[in-house]
Design brief:
This protein is α/β, with parallel strands linked by helices and about 500 residues long. It has 3 domains: about 1-75; about 85-235, 2-Layer Sandwich (Alpha-Beta Plaits), CATH 3.30.70; about 255-490, Alpha-Beta Barrel (TIM Barrel), CATH 3.20.20.450. The protein has 17 helices and 16 strands. Strand 4 (about 180-185) and strand 5 (about 185-190) form a beta hairpin. The structure holds ligand C2E and calcium ion (2 copies).
Amino acid sequence: MKLFVTDIEKLDELQTLKGILYVLITGLMFYLIIKKRMDLYADTIDELRISITELEKTNHTLSVLESQLYDLAYYDELTGLLSRNMIARKVLEHIEHSPNDILGFVYLDIDDFKHVNELKGHDVGDQLLIQIANELKEIAGEPHIVGRLGGDEFVVILKNNLHRDLLLDMIKSHASKIHKSFILDGDEYFVSVSAGVASYPHDGKDYKTLLKCADMALSIAKQRGKNQIILYSEVFGSELQKQTDLSNLLNHSITKKELVVYYQPVYNLESNKVRSVEALIRWNHPTRGLIPPMEFIPVAERTGFIKDLTWFVLKESLSQIRAWEKEGYDMMISVNLSARVLNDASFLSKLKRVVAEDKILTHKCIFEITESSILEHIEESIITLNELRAMGFKLSLDDFGTGYSSLTYLQRLPLHVVKIDRGFTRQVKFDNDQNPLIKYTIELAHALGLKVVVEGVEEVYQLKALKSMNADFIQGYHIARPSLPDELDKTLFNKTENPS
Ligand code: C2E
Ligand code: CA
Ligand code: CA
């Protein structure tokens, strides 16, 4: 520059200008760089803001989910009652805070609830559960705790420090307040409840033990006919164990060929012949000996084994009928059908199939049904009985007189025969003892077009008295005890050419 600018002053000015220019350009460059950075930061801050809002949203959803999960874990979704986990927690809390206070642990179960679901559908079943839950909550009140374990099972924890001996009476008086009938889907539905009770600290010192004891007591309540409340007792454990052992043994009894069918003749008072026999099951256990049906039939009914057992008896006795037919005897067979079998739809459909395939001699087979098994589900039973009748089976009402119904009520049932229970026969003491109940039942049964069998005839005077009262048939030790086919006296058996 010195070459072109000779004037020193000018040179200074130029130098200053150059400096200013340098500063300006550098500043501009810095500005541009900083601005770019600033823009970038602004974008990042916006993004950060968006992220923060999203994070807040997620947090909210998470806390909603968390509380829903909490509710799910601790409250029952359908009824709003405490769930199993929460009941366990409450019991634990109580034991920790007031270890010396007595707790009542009530385990409730609605009798035959599955029938509501089967007959009316799950929505109606749910409605019933909700109504019962509300009722339990109201009856129990504060500070007691009501929870649902699942299905139709509820738990009530009573925190009133009531002595064990008084607990049951108190629960019973509360239980009597539970409504007996509920309106569901416009229909009235009758409900009964079974319950098992255990108390802290007497029966158990933790939730699990209390639940186990109350559950055992509940099983016993169910076994003793439902609709009752039972306080836990130490003997229940071994009682239930014995039954489990028996039921395990029973499950193998058919394959091990331990079940045997005995036959007891039914004697016709008019023809003095035997045209039918009742099939009565016997369990011949290798070490326990002959176990009577009253001991194992209830177990078989509970476990469902009764269905296999009934098939066994039916098949055995029908082949016995065929065997007798070959020997020239025209005989009929009576087979006992318990409630569990009568009310089982799969039994009926299997029977229909077998009847169609094997051509079972349905007209030679009588089913004996007790009043209580019919009354348990009267409408469905009438349908089933009509179907059995349409297939050609004869139907007999067993143990008549032990239930509550009158014969007039039983008119609705498509029956052929009524069997008067041996409890009445025992009251007949001499030749012409006209027991009014037997006499009236025979007259009414005849008026309804039914035949009458009188059970438990042990003496000749009973036979005479029953004949004079116009009974059609008798069955009992006086004629013959239940026996194996070979041991039966066949001289009275109805011959093929001589039907009576
Ligand atoms: P049930 O159907 O009332 O059978 C009649 C019972 O009375 C039989 O008892 C029979 O042995 C008894 N018995 C007959 N005559 C007399 C008599 O003159 N005096 C006395 N004291 N008793 C007499 P068992 O064989 O012990 O059967 C008892 C019950 O077990 C039967 O009562 C029936 O309810 C049930 N049962 C037996 N076999 C079967 C079966 O195959 N299936 C089902 N579901 N139940 C059965
Ligand atoms: Ca019977
Ligand atoms: Ca009977």
